[in-house]
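Thread amino acids onto this structure.
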């Protein structure tokens, strides 16, 4: 009966590393590095650069390994982290070695052993911050991409030729891996893509030249996944759940790609799909229950909904999504942080209001810059005295009696821009714009606006059978109309017709 010491590795600050650049190629390369950071770790009976006695599991930025000899575990960590400084500068790893040993067949004690190892990892994270970049001393040239010391020469190929510059080793390493990253994604979805390719520039996601273009950063995170892993008492159960999540994400994204291809003619009317060799979506992270992709700003919410609906079927779990719609030239990392905050807000509302049920989507369009956390932005700009302009986030509940039901807000958005028999919009675009302003004004101005509509025989969609929104704009100091107005701009027209 063999007993083993456990070694737990955790990749830290992943978001900063992957999304810290506004260059899509660097984001891709960084994602690939993180996804394959532990690929050279193998068991003793297999070929590999780094050997352990047993691989527990590898995934989600973590690796659980087992060694019979503690000195070998210490040696492994020294070699692995040393080489990481050269192979992947800028990547930070936290490590923990168990104090005692475990018989891997002892299912009763394994969970306790695993929890103790994770607790030790958290303790180690707070003890020190490793130095993972070359220091700059003021006399060094600064990397134009990262701000770190520019110590590496890099030549980037263009249609016009090659252009070279000194950049940091961090940026160069990411750029060295963007092509393998792209090939990996193409290979994973080749049966769907056919001859299509993924874009390598934000400009190829569907924006039109000369437009003030926006992209959507979609961040999706599974609900209660940590709890599900906590319920698993053996290594096999943990591996099985990891495989289910991995397969579910792959199948869900494959379904999304199939949807895009099937709806090609509709989408072409929505965006500028000029390069027919590219599909207008770019996956960046598709790992475990953590998903991030980018697309044109007008398609982000719709694509998030499609992905989650398939993910629910495949995994039997739910998920929350944050969709940040930002200007194409805006710092990408700030946009990603916004998407992450929106996803977190959806999870918070799901827990506090939704009784921890269902999948939820939150969204925000940043017309200018992002100057504060989303909670502060909404408190400052979307609350007028005691009134709130937003109901979002919305639940994919398919329950028309639910005030947070996503299908309900889309159905009422259709009614808001409904056309008459002559194909003329009943509530004109100018009136919808006026409604947006009226929502921020006093109640008397709102009543006057509604009376004007009534005199023309126009009634706003009531939104919910139990409330008279169409007669007072607000109920319980909340209105659905601001969300509807923004959705007319942020949701595909072919879904609102």
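Threaded sequence (497 positions):
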């Amino acid at each position: 009966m063999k007993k083993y010491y456990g070694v737990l590795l955790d990749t830290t600050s992943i978001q900063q590393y992957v999304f810290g650049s506004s260059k899509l190629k660097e984001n891709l390369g960084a994602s690939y590095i993180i996804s394959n950071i532990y690929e050279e770790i193998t068991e003793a009976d297999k070929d590999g650069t780094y050997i352990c006695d047993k691989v527990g599991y590898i995934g989600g930025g973590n690796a659980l390994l087992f060694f019979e000899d503690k000195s070998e575990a210490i040696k492994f960590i020294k070699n692995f982290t040393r080489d990481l400084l050269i192979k992947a500068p800028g990547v930070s790893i936290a490590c923990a070695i168990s104090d005692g040993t475990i018989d891997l067949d002892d299912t009763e004690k394994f969970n306790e052993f695993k929890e103790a190892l994770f607790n030790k990892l958290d303790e180690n994270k707070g003890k020190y911050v490793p130095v993972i970049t070359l220091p700059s001393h003021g006399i060094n040239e600064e990397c134009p991409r990262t701000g770190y010391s520019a110590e590496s020469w890099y030549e980037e190929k263009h249609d016009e030729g090659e252009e070279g510059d000194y950049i940091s080793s961090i940026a160069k390493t990411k750029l060295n891996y963007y092509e393998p990253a792209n090939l990996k994604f193409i290979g994973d979805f080749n049966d769907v893509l056919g001859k299509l390719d993924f874009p390598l520039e934000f400009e190829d996601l569907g924006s039109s030249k000369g437009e003030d273009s926006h992209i959507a950063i979609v961040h999706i995170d599974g609900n209660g996944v940590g709890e599900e892993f906590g319920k698993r008492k053996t290594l096999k159960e943990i591996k099985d759940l990891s495989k289910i999540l991995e397969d579910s994400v792959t199948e869900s994204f494959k379904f999304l790609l199939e949807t895009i291809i099937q709806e090609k003619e509709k989408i072409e009317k929505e965006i500028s799909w000029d390069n027919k060799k590219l599909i207008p979506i770019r996956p960046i992270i598709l790992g475990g229950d953590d998903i991030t992709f980018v697309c044109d700003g007008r398609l982000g919410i719709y694509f998030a909904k499609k992905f989650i609906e398939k993910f629910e079927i495949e995994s039997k779990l739910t998920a929350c999504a944050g969709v940040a719609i930002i200007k194409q030239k805006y710092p990408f990392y700030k946009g990603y942080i916004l998407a992450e905050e929106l996803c977190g807000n959806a999870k918070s509302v799901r827990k506090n209001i939704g009784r921890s049920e269902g999948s939820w989507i939150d969204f925000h369009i940043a017309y200018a810059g992002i100057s504060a956390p989303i909670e502060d932005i909404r408190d400052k700009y979307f609350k007028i005295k005691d009134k709130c302009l937003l109901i979002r986030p919305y639940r994919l509940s398919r329950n028309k009696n639910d005030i947070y039901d996503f299908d309900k807000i889309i159905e009422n958005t259709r009614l808001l821009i409904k056309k008459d028999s002559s194909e003329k919009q009943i509530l004109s675009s100018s009136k919808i714009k006026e409604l947006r302003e009226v929502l921020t004004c006093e109640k008397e101005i709102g009543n006057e606006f509604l009376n004007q509509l009534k005199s023309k025989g126009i009634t706003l969609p009531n939104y919910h059978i139990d409330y008279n929104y169409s007669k007072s704009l607000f109920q319980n100091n909340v209105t659905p109309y601001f969300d509807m107005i923004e959705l007319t701009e942020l949701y595909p027209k072919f879904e609102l017709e």
